[in-house]
Specification:
alpha+beta; Extracellular Endonuclease, Chain A; protein yfey like fold; 2 domains; eight-stranded antiparallel beta sheet; seven-stranded antiparallel beta sheet; 12 helices; disordered N terminus
Length: 431
């Protein structure tokens, strides 16, 4: 425990007990009290001495607050004197390589000089990878402010998800989270609704926000926190288990429409069972040629999927693979380099994985290449015998694998008249 004076301790108690309660920051409940609870002008938080950051931050944000900005960003990062054990300090972050990431964003606190200033207490800060903080996390924060303008007011709950094997920074060993969660609740009757996200603390800017949507139940399971405890129990259950992206301004891939219909009809347990991934020239889920081929790394990249270790073979040589599954079905297959150190390729096995270049699994050769023979097509061999492999248009890293009826010999490319009807059965990406 860091040194603290009786005076600081006393004022901390006053702050915790009285200040800010009138702003409804905790109207929907207190997720946990295993730390120091502080309720401020613009937000409430629970500070963890173990991790030197909040376990959660909660606040209500209104349309008037967004439209009536009176305070400019101060950048006055500083120790929080109201934390009894002492908060993290500036030197903990200096030279760490991490951004000082707000959990209650400064832009959400611009409606008052006091709330803006308090947002820069280091008790409201967590170490974030810069590409995450300035990329998808910023995009999500801006999206929420847009929703507030549409919905009049929203409740926002944010926090880190920290694994036992976490890294630390600084003398006070500030924990570096693996993921961050954010929960947004519209508590206006009769249209009470919510949407929630878990986003890894790394560069995921090639992925749409919708790919990180989860249920609140899923966040509770990962954090051992209890959100929305002041809601009626029946309503709480519905809100925490159900997510409908159509209620929010988030894109839903067309291939997921049937699944969305099932979700809305209650035949699927929750929206987190949907698959929302996207492949592009740049790859998928932040994977590149330097991404480690390890179970821990794969779990970090795909936290909401089942990871199955398996073996495959080529030319008689066996090698390990990871199958990324949902509901027992293969979504992706991850293959290693020859030394098994890095990821060599990703095989797309599900129609629910969107292709940003356009063609989807099940598309015909004709739909993709018209009636032209692609000069970059060749017959498959070994385990791909009887199939045709083609380079994707406008890509050096995506390959399309086609299959269809033909009685010709192996190792020979079928004539274009035959190939036109063949279907795209697999997409392969190589870094």
């Amino acid at each position: 425990m860091k040194n603290s004076s009786f005076v600081i301790f006393f004022f901390s108690l006053l702050t915790t007990s009285f200040l800010g309660w009138s702003r409804d920051n905790l109207d929907l409940g207190i997720p946990s009290q295993n730390g120091q609870l502080v309720d401020r002008t613009g937000y409430a938080l629970l500070y963890s001495e173990v991790y030197e950051q909040p376990l959660w931050v909660s606040y209500k944000l209104t349309k008037d607050e967004i439209q009536n900005k009176v305070s400019k960003r101060t950048n006055n990062y500083r120790l929080d004197p109201y934390i009894e054990t002492g908060s993290a300090v500036l030197s903990d972050y200096k030279g760490s390589g991490y951004d000082r990431g707000h959990l209650a964003p400064a832009a959400d606190m611009a409606w008052s000089d006091k709330s803006m200033s308090e947002s820069f207490f280091l008790s409201n800060i967590s170490p974030q990878v810069s590409s995450f903080n300035r990329g998808i996390w910023r995009v999500l924060e801006e999206k929420i402010r847009k929703w507030v303008l549409e919905e009049e007011e929203l409740y926002i709950i944010t926090g880190p998800i920290i694994q036992p094997n976490h890294n630390t920074i600084g003398l006070h060993k500030v924990a570096v989270p693996h993921w961050y969660y954010k929960i947004i609740i519209d508590n206006y009757q009769p249209e009470v609704k919510a949407v929630a996200f878990i986003i890894p603390n790394r560069n995921t800017n090639n992925n749409p926000l919708s790919s990180f949507v989860v249920s609140i139940d899923q966040i509770e399971k990962k954090t051992n926190l209890d959100f929305l405890s002041r809601m009626p129990e029946k309503l709480q259950h519905v809100i925490e288990s159900k997510v409908n992206l159509s209620e929010w301004d988030l894109p839903v891939f067309q291939s997921d429409k049937v699944e969305m219909d099932k979700i809305e009809q209650g035949s699927i347990l929750s929206a987190n069972q949907r698959i929302v991934l996207s492949i592009s020239e740049k790859g998928l889920a932040g994977i590149d040629s330097k991404t480690e081929f390890s179970k821990d790394k794969i779990r970090e990249l795909f936290p909401n999927f089942d990871i199955v270790e398996d073996v495959s073979s080529t030319e008689g040589e066996e090698f390990p693979i990871f199958r990324i599954k949902r509901d027992g079905q293969d979504i992706l297959v991850i293959n290693p380099t020859n030394d098994h150190q890095y990821i060599f390729s990703i095989q797309i096995k599900s129609k629910n994985v969107a292709n940003e270049l356009g063609p989807k699994l099940g598309s015909s050769y004709y739909q993709i290449y018209s009636d032209q023979t692609n000069k970059n097509c060749f017959p498959g061999v070994e385990e791909l015998s009887g199939k045709v492999i083609c380079s994707a248009l406008r890509s050096k890293r995506l390959m399309y694998i086609f299959s269809g009826p033909w009685s010709g010999p192996d190792g020979v490319l079928p004539p274009i008249e035959t190939l036109q009807s063949w279907k795209l059965v697999e997409i392969v990406w190589k870094p």
